[in-house]
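Teaching assistant's notes for section 4

Start the section by putting this record on the projector. Ask students to predict, before seeing the second block, whether Ribosomal-protein-serine acetyltransferase will look compact or extended. Collect guesses on the board.
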Amino acid sequence: MAQKIVPENIIQAAKEIAARPEHANQPFFLFDVDAVLTKVNDMKAVSKKYFSDVDIAVSLKSCSLGLFTRLMAQEDLNAEVCSVDEFRLAEAAGFSGDRIILDGPYKNVEDLSFALDKGALIHVDSARELHELAELAAHRDQCYGVGVRISHYYREGQRSRFGVTAEEYYHKILPLLISSPHLYLKGFHLHVGSNLESPQKITDNLNDWLPFLVKNMPKGGHLDMGSGFPADSFSSDVNAETCEPEVFLRRIFDTLVIYNPSLPEKWKLIFEPGRYLSEDNGYAVGKTLSFKQRYDAQVFQTNLGINWLPSIHNWHHSLTLLDSSDGVQRDDEQILAGFNCFENDCLYPKGRYGLREGQSFMIRGCGAYDMQTANEWTRIKPPVYALLNKRIVTARVASPALPPAYRDLLHNDENIRVDDFIRLVTPSSRFSPALYEIVNHNRKHFSEYMAWPNYMNHESDEARFLDACYLAHQKDEGKTYVILFNDEPVGLLSFNSIDKANKTAYIGYWLDMRVEGNGIITKSIKVLLHYYTTKNMIKRFVIKCSVDNIKSNEVAKRCGFELEGKLREAEYLNGHFHDQNIYSWIASDAPKN
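Reveal the predicted structure now:
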């Protein structure tokens, strides 16, 4: 029955977590991984019952929880992603490139290029994407197979904006495939929708496309049928039966067999049951705090908000009370309100829920989309726990801070005077053109003792690096200064990392060879030592450099650093391990006035 039954083990796990002191007022998500794995094994078994060559792919846009994706990779499923960012998540979870499908209506050049390099299957959505792929493949002088998304009937006899029509295929896609020596057709993708009440819409569209597919499908080609398998949230009717995956698979199989009995054997089938696997197995657990009499109802203030549950009004979510055994029968009309500062932050509209003040409750159906699209606005996102092997584990920690605290650049600039000609200023992407020119000019020299020049191949790389340095600078995780000589950028001086607990900073620097011999680095380091010693922020300063890097060793000595010893084979650079000297300077080393 749709959204009605919450397993008792989930209720008990939610109660156990809610009873923890840290969750006296803090909400959380709970994800039933054990139930997901049961569904995966059932799905694998029933799909093989009907199709000899079949793949199951999980969609990271539905659920990107790391524990979930790792286990799906471990179960030999494939991953469907929509960007290079999701691609990297899939790789981190254990999916190899040949088990990843790049899908979706929009893919930029970076997405396409990355997927090509990783050997992923790419489903193109337009002639533009195919044209860009052809150019990328030609540049690599390699041959790649691609899939083509085809458009289903969406509503009122109109085709979906996703995929191409038969006319577009013949007039735009096919000519590109024929003219490109580097691309060939591997198959098609027919996505009809998700969370469908029945397989009827899928089979109707499949019947519509079958003549085209039989005519154009390459030998051994694939047909990706998308993600129509429903979660219980497909209906708000608690008495509505949720159609099981086997019903969908059997109807698809029957449709293919009726048209041509050999099709299930000739084609590889791909299914993407993302919401079916994850949605019903995710829960949000919150608490009522107090209520006011408004709108002819008790309006309960909760510790959840609709920005954490974006799907709350898009599909049905059942409500379960966790601790309602006080013996009091409550029949008042009630509204569950969120914590945001606008009137319509409403989790549940007027109804009889049996709530009381201090009531813990559980919202089902939050395992797809909510956990990853929940956004931080006035409060950090709550943690995610999981039930794995019947044990409660932490699957995602609460976000550390609101985004402005760890992603926004405040541009509270510093300006440290070294002498009449030298200044140290906070990093900014406005310096990227000049600094990138210096890197290019000194690339061979810098690469002798530093690895990072290999990764600095465009001015935009320098700009992103400077932005990252600024962010670390304002969070006191590191300190980076652009060295200005006669008001022109000539290098960088930084604390590459700061050990706050031990008040230790690790110094790094580089300088344009064209201005060497002016004492710029030596003077700048001495001023920086004094500056941070005076602020009582750093006590111990460390310089590590290759024993063969004569200039850096001399800088450390000129600045009064003491050689503490040699680290054997401590740095891997240019295919070899190098010994490093380690120097230190502490506040007591400063000359007494």
